Amino acid sequence: IRDVMEKFHPEVIRYFIVSSHYRSPVNFSDVALKEAKTALSRFYHSFKAYQQVYGQKTVETLEQSFVERFNNAMRDDFNTAEAMAVLFELNKELNRAVKEEQAEQATVLYSTLRQLTNILGLIQHDVDEFLKSDIGQEALTLSDTEIEDFIQQRVDAKKAKDFAKADGIRQSLLDQGVVLEDTRQGTIWRRAD
Fold it and tell me: Which numeric CATH code is attached to 2-127?
């Protein structure tokens, strides 16, 4: 397990194990763990999109249809594979609600997804911390401060209408494993998958 944890974030390993039925054989491989990381990252990206607009706001009211389907899957001989399918459907609805700026619905869906993922011990880390995690990846050649400096240079270039320079900075960072995302709150970064 120590060797695997050097290559993959511990939560990716948990997701990989939880996403298949406990009685099914587990086909353990680097490819399967990379797929698990990609799938888990989808939840983190959705949480990030929600949090950029609404912060950490949650409500007590949950979307009962998803809760009931999740609970039914878990009662069916701990069918975590089916429970994960419910979570992905819920995640899709959350993305739609955030995109369509349906604040009340988005908050209910986020609260529901947060509670159900907690049951499985998933999405336990800070969103940015997880997305910037470098476990199993080559260390970035740039420090956080250097990346922020490049982001500021790109912002300045965009203000000066020097879009070629701004695009060059974005591409240079991407070549070094840093993805920039322009949001309403400004430019943020994460590690390339």
Answer: 1.20.120.640
